[in-house]
Amino acid sequence: MAQGAIKKVVLAYSGGLDTSVILKWLQEEYGCEVVTFTADIGQGEELEPARAKATAAGVKEIYIDDLREEFVRDFVFPMFRANAIYEGEYLLGTSIARPLIGKRLIEIAAETGADAISHGATGKGNDQVRFELTAYALNPDIKIIAPWREWDLLSREKLMDYAASRGIAVEMKRDGTKSPYSMDANLLHISYEGYDLEDPWVEPGADMWRWSVAPEDAPDQATVIELMFERGDCVGIDGQRMSPAEVLAELNRIGGANGIGRSDIVENRYVGMKSRGCYETPGGTILLKAHRAMESLTLDREAAHLKDELMPRYASLVYNGYWFAPERLMLQAAIDATQEVVNGVVRLRLYKGNVMVVGRKSETNSLFDASIATFEEDAGAYDQKDATGFIRLNALRLRVAGRKNRC
Amino acid sequence: MAQGAIKKVVLAYSGGLDTSVILKWLQEEYGCEVVTFTADIGQGEELEPARAKATAAGVKEIYIDDLREEFVRDFVFPMFRANAIYEGEYLLGTSIARPLIGKRLIEIAAETGADAISHGATGKGNDQVRFELTAYALNPDIKIIAPWREWDLLSREKLMDYAASRGIAVEMKRDGTKSPYSMDANLLHISYEGYDLEDPWVEPGADMWRWSVAPEDAPDQATVIELMFERGDCVGIDGQRMSPAEVLAELNRIGGANGIGRSDIVENRYVGMKSRGCYETPGGTILLKAHRAMESLTLDREAAHLKDELMPRYASLVYNGYWFAPERLMLQAAIDATQEVVNGVVRLRLYKGNVMVVGRKSETNSLFDASIATFEEDAGAYDQKDATGFIRLNALRLRVAGRKNRC
Amino acid sequence: MAQGAIKKVVLAYSGGLDTSVILKWLQEEYGCEVVTFTADIGQGEELEPARAKATAAGVKEIYIDDLREEFVRDFVFPMFRANAIYEGEYLLGTSIARPLIGKRLIEIAAETGADAISHGATGKGNDQVRFELTAYALNPDIKIIAPWREWDLLSREKLMDYAASRGIAVEMKRDGTKSPYSMDANLLHISYEGYDLEDPWVEPGADMWRWSVAPEDAPDQATVIELMFERGDCVGIDGQRMSPAEVLAELNRIGGANGIGRSDIVENRYVGMKSRGCYETPGGTILLKAHRAMESLTLDREAAHLKDELMPRYASLVYNGYWFAPERLMLQAAIDATQEVVNGVVRLRLYKGNVMVVGRKSETNSLFDASIATFEEDAGAYDQKDATGFIRLNALRLRVAGRKNRC
Amino acid sequence: MAQGAIKKVVLAYSGGLDTSVILKWLQEEYGCEVVTFTADIGQGEELEPARAKATAAGVKEIYIDDLREEFVRDFVFPMFRANAIYEGEYLLGTSIARPLIGKRLIEIAAETGADAISHGATGKGNDQVRFELTAYALNPDIKIIAPWREWDLLSREKLMDYAASRGIAVEMKRDGTKSPYSMDANLLHISYEGYDLEDPWVEPGADMWRWSVAPEDAPDQATVIELMFERGDCVGIDGQRMSPAEVLAELNRIGGANGIGRSDIVENRYVGMKSRGCYETPGGTILLKAHRAMESLTLDREAAHLKDELMPRYASLVYNGYWFAPERLMLQAAIDATQEVVNGVVRLRLYKGNVMVVGRKSETNSLFDASIATFEEDAGAYDQKDATGFIRLNALRLRVAGRKNRC
Prior knowledge:
Helix content of chain A is 40%, strand content 19%. Chain A is α/β, with parallel strands linked by helices and 407 residues long. Among the domains of chain A are: 8-68 and 91-166, Rossmann fold (3-Layer(aba) Sandwich); 182-299 and 341-361, Argininosuccinate synthetase, chain A, domain 2, CATH 3.90.1260.10. In chain A, the strands form 3 sheets. A 5-stranded parallel sheet of chain A has the order 3-2-1-4-5, with helices on both faces. Chain A has a 5-stranded antiparallel sheet with strand order 10-9-8-13-14. The model of chain A has no long low-confidence stretch (mean pLDDT 94). Chains A and B meet through helix 5, strand 11, strand 12, helix 9 and helix 10 of A and helix 5, strand 11, strand 12, helix 9 and helix 10 of B. Chains A, B, C, D: Keywords: Amino-acid biosynthesis, Arginine biosynthesis, ATP-binding, Cytoplasm, Ligase, Nucleotide-binding.
């Protein structure tokens, strides 16, 4: 993408091999200054090594931000108000983090006077789209450099050669061990792609998973927790109020320990191909189940049904990278308009991979009226005879049609 | 509902207390002949006692039908092609059986020259609606007697008194024990309502559940099975072809043994109230997960997304009783049009309540193309540079808007 | 509907024959005090005669309110932001007025200490539903008396007899002439039902229509007007700012003079039957066309498409009487979130029934970028090569499927 | 798009300047054999001159096909069953023709052993997408040459120079006059873009329009016609059965003479920009109105409403070029499933731009039941008391919520 001369570029920089190569490649190919941006969104890695490496590479402006609270408060929680699941299975852990990174890239570009941004996402995946749609929406004139779509370092071997020739250290993976999978992590999830997952018939090895124990290895005793909700967001656990990031971190801990939140799916990428991914989303899996249960008690039927009908589209928008698009904002406005009443407590039993709702209550907003629903006499709370007219008028169009010998 | 003189009525008759009282009450109140209809839809009860009781009550036309294959083939399976779930949790086990019963009532009315039908559903629930919408759609001129909406036997005590005064035997519940819950069962599920479930904060006792072991009591060893799909329907297990009812029965057995398919929810009834129900749907829970996995490999992305968007409406139609309505048929036509390619095998691990997809394959219809999706060099199967134009044109409207200082 | 003793009832009172009979009937049947409420919502009738008649009938609390501005500002305009049309043809003129009347009935009941409300809508129509859903939503414990569903005055003859026997004056219709049609009017429209319209093959006589000239009788010269929009609402005509009710009244005048806004349709009532109605909506017809044109210039594509997909449901909610329901509020939140940018001017040519958009502009919010769209060289505003990647990735799933010999 | 050596290419060839230049350019640039394909889809031009020019240019395989019946029967009519309108205004006249052209290009490529196709659509418009999505769906391995995205002849001047230098005749426009607009025509419509339309505030000159008289110039006497429908398709006019193409041609004639079917809109292109277009769709405008009227009498309410909700998506799919995509086929299956009952006759008055429905009837499928809808006594066809229960149960959720002080 010839975009004229680049003066300064902000790079989303993890400190790992790929983005270290990109940092060097940008300096060489574009002859421009590089600003690095490294974010803590709960991926569970130390960030200071990234600072040291950037400094060593001659970077003068180094941004290292703790975005965990913003991430959960302004991205994860609004999305969970929508009960968003992509294609029935995927909780959008990677998708929801990208617009936040993209937004910070644009903010830093403005602060540093950079005219371009760059990222390490490949040309085959969804992340490039998510980064770039965000960037273009927030700064229509930004220039974007996506090295994977430009260079010829398209195999791991070529990349390693390039690194070696430039003296870029090739370290072991994040936690000291080496994983053959392509992984991504943040406070909401960790994902795995590639390697033996490229055959959708093959079950991955037990040692792939990193955040959760296998259900088989979880405690033999169930864990019971109570989640407190206010306006659709979880604000505490077992009576203890917590910040958004604290809630999610704690649910990850509890869920992971109980073997909760693993999934293994084939999904449809926005760029047109099917891909296979495995995910661990322990806290999110608990949160989704609990949020739905809270809504089941407090939300009006038709509002709930409309939310369910809009949800797949909302999820696709998030998956495809349209967080900062008018249609996502429009749906969010509809969703948020329903959540004022979603207040109360949900009790859950967690056991070896299972999340079981076993109780829900709301002092202020329960729409469950036992005096109406009871199987016993209800003292006139509900007049059963009303049902006759209800059914007869709902059936009228079917009867008229039936008389024309049709259904 | 005064509907003029009734000559003969077909009653959906289980042989239990409620419908035995109704049988008597119809004879007394309407002075009409009663035809009984008892169906085996897999509820797991003997039907012959119903014949004996009906005979004893003076019934001359007694219908006892085994509808299990028709139930699964023509009702359950089409519904599972839609991946139908009501309100995110309920697999519609009761809902899907009602139109079949209603249809047989109308057929038997035609065969026996009856001018009315009757059922034992209360005036507060969904089942009355499902029976009667079905009946009206298939015979617009049928008369319907819903005793619960007419009589004054509105408490259990009054009902027992009526039974005692007419010499109707009050037996123990189905399996010899007495349950305090209102239950309904068929090949797809068993449901529980009432009693302590009327407080949504209370967890039901462990002895309520009847079809499945608790996850805690399931085997410590996972069970691995393979489900074969043809045109979206499961046609066999572990290489063994089976009829629809056999498939579901076998999945119930395997699922129940592994603690699969329990749920505890608050749902919104069509008649306007929230109610709390517990369900065991072992086979259905496995089937839904497997069908989605089969689709993930074989179904086009946009067809799958459209199915997901239409699903909540389809599920509401089934829940509300509109099986024989043009809008359900219309959605079914759309859904069925997608299923020709849903062929292949899904491998699942079942363990203490968990259904884990661990493999899926389709020789004829897999859309997973490893040569495109690979993280390695792809020999030109996919040109990463295409992504640049894809992103730039998708971003164009956001950029133009951004220039007007909006997102 | 036996609802216990009624002490005081607020009646929606027009002063015409029907509601005068109801007033008397309420006094006789229920022996309760009646409060009358008469609203000016632009129906074009004098209201003071209603006061005189109510006084004569012994009513002590008489409410006569001018609700025209509230009607247009809080009901008509929000609905037009949604571009609402029911079943492709009906602009919801009657539907949108009912929740306002219902709301005032409940407010007046609170002010006067009444425990019930009453209205003159029949048991076959939509209006009873709209009044009563509104009333129940705003006061769940209100009692509602719907005389048409209770009494036996079900023919015009019986009604006249009742009136005669009680000395109720049977006057000519509104404007001094007598119409055989059932009519309803407010600032948005006038409607006709019944009489020869009951055969949908019959064209109504030319003298049925009251608000507009026939296209044949409209001026031979087109009228050109410019409508100013702010945040999706029309705030003025031809440079002249006006209040909401003034805008609509003026558009009615201009539209009616140009033969605009007649329609003749068969529609589906909420109570299950088809009915045939004729409508004159001159101002609304112009407004809808202009609003869409304003959005076409200023609204994002995906927001506009989502609005279009949600519109039919929004229209059904309004038609069915669910104005004060969570799902309508939810949709309204989504719609309103899009309208901040709908600012500018639309120019229209009105000619013998036609509303033709001939220009639209927006200094602040036009998303039309001639430098991109031009057929001439665009100096790099758009890179045509981007389209290649855009198409190729959008086609990818079709190609992969095509290789499996399917489309 | 480097696609390796091309041996033979099938070109969609009109015989006009642009495609004549492309023909030459393909021969020069690709050094390959060119097959020309010219279709009669009702654009109203002679095709034989195209044959002569192709022959003169050295083309050996020349295809000239009359596709009018196929176009209307298999493309236009299925689309009208859906009542498709894009963005509330556009009847998709150009969009619906492209997949047919694309399909024939692929068929001819197969017949002639060509490995590529080519077309004259620019890189800014929708048509390139429609041609190419169709082509890729039907032959995933086809190569596509889109000269406008490759060459540098991006202004009219450069094109003329190229033509002059190669001896390509630059003739006047189709009908002998010269139009400054970019136009496209087929049996469904004629479109205009570019020139003074590039300012959306400017009204085009009266001499732009070609197919219809201005409403001002239409006859002073209305024309009344009756359209016969079978299964949702128009099969005749005024009692005279006609083929699909005959129907549309005749409606174009009648509509055009009565000033019907002009529109002037700003629309959102799939490639991301807004553009302004004017359209004449005389027959289609009549057909849409009549089809809706036929459905209003014969179609079930909920089926009709579901169609309305799905329509905008269906229209977008057609607009964006996804005719041969699974999701369009899926929607078509749903739509077609409803049309079996859409039989009868619609009477219309056409007058100076207006299409007024004045009658509709269906002997076999009318769902209008005057005995139910009547304002007079109905002899028990409808029990008004049923409405009480209907309203009360529909209000129940609102009342329960109201008791929690919410709406």
